[in-house]
Amino acid sequence: MPEYELLSDYPLLAHNTFGFDVRARLALRLTEEAQIAALAHDKRLKDRARLILGGGSNVVLTKDFDGVALLMELRGRHVIDQDGEAVYVEAAGGENWHEFVAWSLSQGFPGLENLALIPGTVGAAPIQNIGAYGLEMGERFERLRAIELSTGETREFDRNACAFGYRDSYFKREGRGRFVIVSVTFRLPKKWTPRAEYADIARVLERGASDNPQAIFNAVVAVRQAKLPDWRVLGNAGSFFKNPVISAAEFDALKAREPELVSYKQPDGQFKLAAGWLIDQCGWKGRSIGAAAVHDRQALVLVNRGGASGAQIIELADAVKRDIHARFGVELEAEPVCL
């Protein structure tokens, strides 16, 4: 069995982007795959709950964790294959997502630039099926390797097995907490097509620059920095709510009542609503409950102004959801996992 040190009464302040000052009864820094496989046979951890943390950018910790926090620190990124259509790039689960996107672009492999500056790790990206500005990670995904915590066995998942949905996957539902994702392989097309249709991105891009993947990367970074708070300065988990998707019939009825409704028609005929607009219309932008607040520039983002607890963030989210439902008849769903 590989050697590793179990850390007692471990502070998680630096392991969640909301900046909640909570602790784990035990913690383990995962720097090699053999450590993860060995967990299934460690009698000291029998029957203990596990909490897998990468960057902690998609979790709301409402209390101390009475179990073992598994801190993902696996590193490595490299080209593993290519064919006539694509380059296949693999990254370890503990790699910083934004740094991986920047690295792949610097190697001459565009395709992920629209997902720049999203906080978190590579291993967390498939769980959430992260997406932004017209691209979802699932479109570039090839496969991943994961270790099942109960057995220590390594399994490979292709796109179908991951069951990607809008900010959703198998690992967020049936597979939640069962696996540690140790590496992800991406398929980056050699025939690159820009995604620069979003108004915010087009506004920042210089004329003709949409054919340059580095320019799109820079534009995405600039837009995100202008709209979203830096979690290192103001604790947050990025967009807190999913954009709700409703049927065409529901949309028609709502549009009749709310002519200014901001929406995006989906390929299947449904409509995605702009959750930020819904929240803003209910007057929540900039409002707070204690030190938990709705950001004053982006209503989709809930922030910790300093000293807020996870419970206060949940209380604020619930209040926002009630008002949205009362006015629009729409249910908002949180993106982060609340523990």
From TrEMBL:
It is found in: Cytoplasm. It comes from the Bacteria. The keyword rRNA processing does not apply. One of its GO terms (cellular component) is cytosol. InterPro entries: FAD-bd_PCMH, FAD-bd_PCMH-like_sf, FAD-bd_PCMH_sub1, FAD-bd_PCMH_sub2, MurB, MurB_C, MurB_C_sf, Oxid_FAD_bind_N. The keyword Cell cycle applies. Pathway: Cell wall biogenesis; peptidoglycan biosynthesis. Its cofactor is FAD. It catalyses: UDP-N-acetyl-alpha-D-muramate + NADP(+) = UDP-N-acetyl-3-O-(1-carboxyvinyl)-alpha-D-glucosamine + NADPH + H(+). The active site is at 167, 239 (proton donor), 335. Its EC number is 1.3.1.98. Its main location: cytoplasm. Residues 20-191 form the FAD-binding PCMH-type domain. This is UDP-N-acetylenolpyruvoylglucosamine reductase. The gene is murB.
